[in-house]
Amino acid sequence: MEVTQFLLNAQSVDSTVRKHAEDTLKQFQEQNLPAFLLSLSTELVSEEKPAESRKLAGLVLKNALDAKEQHRKSELVQRWLSLDVGLRSQIKGFLLQTLYSGVHDARSTASQVIAKVAGIELPHKQWLDLIGSLLSNIHQLPPHAKQASLETLGYICEEVDPDVLDQDQVNKILTAVVQSMNATESNVDVRLAATRAIYNALGFAQANFSNDMERDYIMKVVCEATLSPEVKIRQAAFECLVSIGSTYYEKLAPYIKDIFMITSKAVRDDEESVSLQAIEFWSTICDEEIDILEEYGGDFTADSDVPCYYFVKQALSALVPMLLETLLKQEEDQDQDEGAWNLAMAGGTCLGLVARTVGDEIVPLVMPFIEENITKADWRQREAATYAFGSILEGPSPSKLTPIVNVALSFMLTALTNDSSSHVKDTTAWTLGRIFEFLHGSTTEAPIITAANCQQIISVLLQSMKDAPNVAEKACGALYFLAQGYEDVGSTSPLIPYFQEVVQALLNVSHREDASESRLLTAAYETLNEVVRCSTEETARLVLELIQVIMAELHKTLEAHRISSGEREKQTELQGLLCGCLQVIIQKLCASEPTKFALMQYADQIMSLFLQVFGCRNATVHEEAMLAIGALAYGTGPNFAKYMPDLYKYLEMGLQNFEEYQVCAVTVGVVGDICRALEDKILPYCDGIMTQLLKDLSSNQLHRSVKPPIFSCFGDIALAIGEDFEKYLMYAMPMLQSAAELSARTSGADDEMIEYTNLLRNGILEAYSGIFQGFKNSPKTQLLISYAPHVLQFLDSIYVEKDMDDVVIKTAIGVLGDLADTLGSHAGSLIQQSLSSNDFLSECLSSDDHLIKESAEWARSAISRAISV
Amino acid sequence: MSSKDPIRSFKQPSFSDQRKRRQQSLQRQSQNREEAQRHARSLLQTILSFLDVQPESHGDISLVTQSEESVKEFDVRQAARIRGAEARRWFAKQLMMPEWMIDIPDRLSSDWYVCARPSGKRCFVVSSNGITVSRLRNGSLLHRFPSALPNGARTNKSTGSGQSYCILDCIFHEPDQTYYVIDMVCWAGISMYECTADFRFFWLNNKLVETGACDRPSVSHKYMFRAISFFDCDQEGLNEAYTGIAPYVKDGLLFCNKHSHYQSGNTPLSLVWKDEKCSQYVIDTDSKGLIPDQQQVVLELLDDGRLATSDEPPAIFAHLDSRFIQENELKAGNLLRFAIKGWGSYFTDGNLEGADLQYVGKPNRSKNLADSLSKVVFQYMARNAPLRIEQLFTAVNASRKEDATICDLDIVDLTLNSMDA
User: Fold this and answer.
1) Cβ A530–B158 below 8 Å, yes or no?
2) A442, A410, A444: which is closest to A428 by C-alpha?
3) Which of A8, A427, A436, B375 is 20 to 30 Å from A628 by CA-CA measure?
4) Do A349 and B15 touch (CB under 8 A)?
5) Complex ipTM over 0.90
6) Is the pTM of this model over 0.80?
7) What per-residue confidence (pLDDT) applies to A301?
8) Are A95 and A57 in contact (CB under 8 A)?
């Protein structure tokens, strides 16, 4: 089939023509996939075809090989591998041939498709001659083909895991790429392609970076490339340095002085795209050193995998002045532009990271700059000084910063009120927020906020909430941290007298016409939530009034019909925020008996609002409403049963939401809340819920993070309905068993996998716990006896594996007790034979963690009862 | 290939309120799940019924009979079935009663704790459902008050459910109006009953302060609580307990075996000892507060006329003939006070039944249990040949010697000598 015309039509401005072409191509693909793919590759390789159709042919081919969604992706991989080998060779031959094309778009698209095919075939030990054929005569190629081959190598390195290529292949790739990157390469495109390729190949170069000579050579070539006359090459070379900074931090010592020279020159003199990368290098070094020092945990003698070389500390006296200079290079309206990223922003961000890396030492280096500039007539100088101050508030010790802040605070408050520059006000409000975040709170020794200045601070912040949206947003943020600092001071909170005023001011902000700018609306509600969370019983009455206001607001959004799609988006956002706010208020009021009682008079109204909210399809809103319902169920207790007939279908909907898995996860948690609230009254809904949960577990579409909570939910249900869980045993138990087997062994898993495995284990164990306790004192206890050997075996095997975290240990030893408690003498000898009841139990009994110890004591007593009978 | 975009977050808030909401929900859920689990594991929920018992005038509380099934465990499956006066009586039996130290236990320095016992009223303190109640040994009400214990007051601080409650073994010390906590039976709904003393004290010290129960009294916290300081019973610890300054008036030393569980009634794993230096009340006084010439003892009259101690099984001192019982209108279960005129053959063959007793009368009504044998013997020793602090120090220092029973022999020798005298 001739696809050229359809490929061209598919890019037509006429939507009818476009639609028809897309449908035809789709049909072709469905009817005969092999022929379709072959036509596309033929189109791509044909020099006589238009560049537009060749390019699209390549992209369609690429999309037939890869998808973002993991499940879809593995389908496509299988589909490709099941195609005829001859056909695949033919297509791959065309792809390689396209690299020689004179048309740039065709070459470039072919590069990407080759990488996708390589990503599928190389891990399956197929297309093993690919790297060889790309490299075989690279030095004899015409420049455009050489450029395309290098680009392809780069994409391949981006696509496949380092363990897929053997060291010999890696060496060959690096040699070819580094040679083409050398200053002696006269063709700019080739040198640029090589520089970008090395960026992707760096992850493969572990062995080469451990060899002094090879590393020296790579570093020399990369550093030289940063001096290239071509700006794109300089930028790409700095990108390589950034990547080396994070991947090979521990190899940098011999080069760091030179790199400092290169980067500081670039920051001061080069074009912005290059300067930004040069700053990013130092930000990356800070990231590395912060991580390493955090791992040291203040214990500098500890054996860390990677030692800290204190590069930032050594460069400090030159690095800080360089960064301070960048702060003066602000753009006029950067605070209104959400995507903005410039030298001043990058420099300030890096300065903040430096402060976190070195702590107190940065303060004397920055103070002169602040003092010199903060009162200058030019707004740039005042803003830069303020930004510098705000940037160094995290890292140095409170004892170092507090005296300075005490002096600066009233100046800041004045600037926030009176400064003529909105930019300065924005940064000032942000800095106040940072002051409250890091230096204010019940644990700090010398309070920044005192009886003397509290009123002034609050009134300035409330005033600023009427300022430009970006300034108001920062003022809300500052208030958030101000409230947070009083989280646990109880009835001595100095905020109590201002509660009503603050809440009203935040509601006013939420009603501003321009509240959708600068995420002001979100900031206002976030701060409102925090003010409620940190409120005390003295203001409980006002929180009760607030809930009525928020309910009215939510009601209003549900009334509005026939609105534009832009309006609808805003309205949806508002509904999410209102549901979130209701959740916070409900949780707050349910924490004490009198307020919980008072809240209950609104329960019917609240539920009816939430049920209406579910009518609007939006994941975030659903999630927020669901969380709020969970809080309400907890507060309502058994009376919550009356909402179940209406709520049930939305629970089911939530549990079926695979795509927006957060909604599914939240719903699973809420089912647990409802189980505990209703106890056996949840029974009529259990068939439906269990069916859905079992489906969720068997789905490979559902995000894996939802599965552990589903197991825990089994436990919640079993505990709620007791022996009525009987009919689900035959489904739930095998699932638990196979998940248990899967999670028992973790050998060779990485940290992330071990963490997930422990979450899974905890879910499984909580299920067992709930099931055993649910059947306690029931005549049907004997149904569980046949499962006991497996449960004990599971406990033994995870004990042997020795990689449980404390939470799992606590749950596991509790399950041992639950099993003994419920099965009693039926399991006596089984228990005695298990490793868990001996070594594991005695380890837990002498644990330092009192929760583990508590569970262990319980297990010991249950076991002693079981074996004494 | 696109260039690597280095954009980092700029002036963005360091928090995500949505994430915070999600986390707080998860936290609430996992706490509630834990609570539900504890509730399922706990046998003690019915303890709440005791709070319904009004402080009415108590009936005949001395009706405790030996035929009543002895309660060795804090078994609420049993307790759930009983109400009112019966409940109070049951309640009274739940306190762990130390025996008196009449000989020095093995491995004193390694296996035991020691503390200075506060002088005052021994009681159970139960907090639940927003109120705290204290009850004396005989089951009668001491105080009903708000406290900072879990669920001990109706404040918004109590986050636990109605099932969260706690039971503490305390001594109420009048001079500073403080409850000194000597043991923890239940905490926040969890039974500490089968936990070792080691663990209970560890938990007690951690938890009590956390709740604010050790804070100064306030509207929602009427009395201050303090955990007693227990020391390892080595040279230093014993010295600290004996001579150290305590915030309360001392009444002897309390020894507690580290591995023992909380056990109702008399137990040899908890021992009390005193001398003049650390207690005002070494030798028992009579109902007028005077030290009688002859040692007195409170015994329980059994069905068959025998006079028994409160031990399990009881030690029998003597036998009353039915005529005497009728003349004095005595009933089985009555507690009776006698003066000891002679010990019979107790110190030679351990048989007490030959003791020569003289009836004094019925004891004060507040007493609801007969004396234990260890108490009687301790009182005898106090009058004749007390177990002295120096002997305790010697035993502690000689702890490496496995067999500390040498001391026992010494004491018996001593007592025998003084008997002869």
Assistant:
1) no
2) A410
3) A436
4) no
5) no
6) no
7) 57
8) no
